Write the C-alpha cells for this entry.
Amino acid sequence: IMVFLNRQLSAEVREWATDERAVVQQSGAAMVKTTDAQGNETTQKAAVKQDAQAYVQKHTGVGGDRSGPEEAWMWSFEDGFLAPLLESGAQLVDRTTTMRLVAAGSGKAGSATDLTSVKQVEMDALKGSADMFVEILVTEAPGSAYGYEFKATAKDVKTGLIKANVSSLRWNMKKRMTKEAVVTGKGYDVVEKEAEMPPVHMVSERLSMDMMNALARTWGGGQ
C-alpha cells in the first residue's frame, strides 16, 4: 500500500500547458513561378512574408498537494494512521523513495537540460511497487468538534477501483461536557466544562481502523 498523506493524484495528465501564443511576421525572398495569358511561364524573385509562431509553456506541476495543519500535527496524525496497518502486516510503500528509485533506474533522474515527466515517474513507481494506494485528506472544518474533518480512500492501482471510502463525517463527534466543582465566594459551585478532545493520533487511528474494516467488508463480499 502506498499512502498519500494529505495529497491526491492529479487529474491533469499534461506536464506542460500552453496558454500564450506569439506570432512574428518574417520577410524574405522566394522564387515565384507565374503564367501569362498565353501560357508562358516565367520565374522571378519576389518578396514574401511568412508568419512564425512561438508558444509559451508553463509547467503544470505534479498536482495533488494540499495545505494542511502544521508539520508536528501531521506527524502525529501519520503515526496514528499507519500503526494499525503495520501491526496488521500490511507492507507500506514510501512514495518519495520509490519515485527516486524508478527515476534512477530508468535514466529519468533529470539534468539541467532534461524535461523529466514527474507524473510519468510517479505512475511508474506506483504501478511497480504497490497493489493499492490510499489518499488521506485533512480539511479544516471550524464547525466540527475537532476543527478538522478527515477522509481516507483506498484504490486499486491497476484498475482505479475504489475499494474503501471512509470519513469522520459519520462519527457524529460532538464536544463533550463534564461537570466540575469550583470554589467561589459562596462556597462550591458545580459548573460545566468542555472536555478535552482525544489526541490527534487516536483520531487518525480510528480513521485507519474504519478503512481496514471497510476493506474487509469489500474483500469478504468477493469484490
Notes: The first strand starts at residue 2 and ends at 5. The beta strands are 2-5, 16-35, 41-59, 132-140, 148-156, 162-167, 177-184, 187-194. Residues 200-220 form the longest helix (21 residues).
